[in-house]
Design brief:
This protein is α+β, with helices and mostly antiparallel strands and 303 residues long. The chain contains eleven helices and seven strands. Helices cover 55% and strands 14% of the residues.
């Protein structure tokens, strides 16, 4: 690109990036669902943190910047062939139906390979936009939900920002920015920072029976220990507990298990308080009814 045209294009990139970030955060307020971080949460908690840290903060930023930003700066045939071969191998191992991301990576590999041999075949701006789009698509779950749309816009904005950094400064700067972002994500997991779109405690009370249930869903990034207390059968108090943990702590008096469906992700944690102002003990059946009233479970009653 000519210097003035390139400067104008870079300005459009950074403003588009800022606009994308603003739009993605705005869309969160129209989405009633929460981000399902269960898979990543499981990976982090069930493996060595140091390995995950190295992968997310050091390896992934370098690999992704070499794959998506380096071809925009230099016409390296080696990088082009590596990206192409990785996508082909991944498709052969998992199949196209299971790896839509690798299919997009394959298309990107073909584009940069053509560009490395003949830069006139692919328009430079089109190549930049393609790198941003494919980068965003690789980070999607393809669930076709509002959350996925929001994530796509956010990743487009992230890709545009990293591209702007790489083109305006250098590839090393883009790697550092990418690494710093991933470092922040890992620290959220490690230190269990608390945040939620709507942190207000919801509550439902059964009038006339003197029984009340209050609950609050907690974010996935919660490293505090779980606890469930069922004291004197007149109240139940659960902190940072999954619904399954709460149910497992209830005493089965008749030796038979109730059938129920948990209506939340198995990784979701809750603060749940059930208080009973009656003189009658708070029995297991009543607790299950209250959990169903709060739409935390759905009981399956046998006819």
């Amino acid at each position: 690109m000519k210097e003035r045209a390139q400067e104008g294009f870079l300005n459009k990139l950074i403003f588009s990036s800022i606009g994308g970030f603003v739009l993605s955060f705005a869309l969160l307020y129209f989405d009633s669902t929460t981000a399902d971080s269960g898979v990543l949460y499981s990976e982090v908690t069930n493996s060595r943190f140091l390995f995950q840290f190295m992968l997310m903060v050091l390896i992934a930023p370098v690999a992704e910047e070499l794959a998506f930003r380096a071809p925009l700066i230099s016409k390296s045939k080696i990088i082009s062939w590596i990206v192409l071969l990785i996508s082909v191998v991944y498709i052969l191992v998992t199949g196209i139906n299971e790896s839509l991301g690798s299919l997009f990576l394959l298309i990107w590999g073909i584009l940069i390979l053509l560009n490395s041999y003949n830069s006139t075949l692919v328009n430079e701006k089109a190549l930049v936009l393609s790198s941003i789009i494919v980068f965003a698509l690789l980070h999607l779950d393809f669930s076709l939900s509002l959350l996925d749309v929001t994530k796509f816009i956010f990743m487009l904005a992230s890709g545009a920002l990293l591209t702007w950094v790489a083109l305006k400064y250098n590839l090393k700067s883009a790697i550092i920015v990418h690494s710093m972002y991933n470092f922040g994500v890992m620290m959220i997991f490690y230190y269990g920072l608390q945040f939620s779109i709507n942190p207000q405690v919801q509550s439902k009370c059964v009038e006339g029976q003197g029984i009340c249930i209050e609950w609050q869903e907690k974010p996935y990034f919660d490293s505090f220990d779980s606890s469930v207390t069922y004291s004197n059968k007149f109240n139940l108090k659960a902190n940072n507990a999954t619904i399954k943990l709460i149910l497992d702590n209830l005493v089965i008096s008749d030796g038979q298990k109730d059938e129920y469906i948990i209506l939340h992700d198995s990784y979701s944690k809750f603060d749940v308080f059930i208080t009973n102002n009656n003189n009658d003990p708070l029995n297991r059946d009543t607790i299950l009814n209250m959990l169903e009233e709060a739409e935390l479970i759905q009981r399956i009653r046998k006819s």
